[in-house]
Structures are given as C-alpha cells and as structure tokens.
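FORM 7B: Structural annotation worksheet

SECTION A. Query
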Amino acid sequence: MAVAYARTIPNVRVLPLYQVSMFAQPQPCDMIVLREGYNPIFVEVRTNSYGLNKPSTLALSALPDSGIVKQVWMHKDGEKGFVIREWDSLSASWLYKDSPYQQEGSCK
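SECTION B. Predicted structure
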C-alpha cells in the first residue's frame, strides 16, 4: 500500500526493499523514494502505531543526515493515506508532515 501511495506522487520512482532471509541483518527502511531534484527519502512503513523505539526505526534515525531524508509512514486501519513523520536532526525528533514533499524547492 505504501508503494502504491508513493507512486501517486508525480515523477517519483520507488525502490521497495525486501528482507530475503530471516537470518539477514535488519534493514533501516522499507523503501526508498526517488524524485528528480530532491534528496532520496528512506521510508519506514508502520501500521496502526509508529513504533519509534523499534530497532529498525532507531537505526533509520541514526543514519547520516547528509543527502537523505528519513521518514516514517503510518497507515491506520480503515483510513486512506498515511500519517507522515520526518526525522529532524536539530531537534532529534520525528516531526509531522502533510506529504512526503511538503517543503518546496530542490535538495533541502
């Protein structure tokens, strides 16, 4: 569902990431969203709760800030769309956004 939502955004390419083995190292994101003129967005997808203290989300927030945007998209059962939060390294917290590309302009 998150991949389908991302594909509704104009000029976006989505790279879903799948863990291929139960013995593989956990990955810090579920997909990467690419759009020309913008930094890549690393997305962690959640259902019904953010789980901001889960190991994979902590790993996502710990990735270097240069050149990437880190977001958590949460889908609640029975609702359309996603509630989006983006990592802000200055405040060290996840801030709410209306859309993945809420801030206009190129490369933040």
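SECTION C. Observations
The first strand starts at residue 12 and ends at 16. Residues 29 and 44 are 5 Å apart (CA to CA).

SECTION D. Sign-off
Analyst initials: ____
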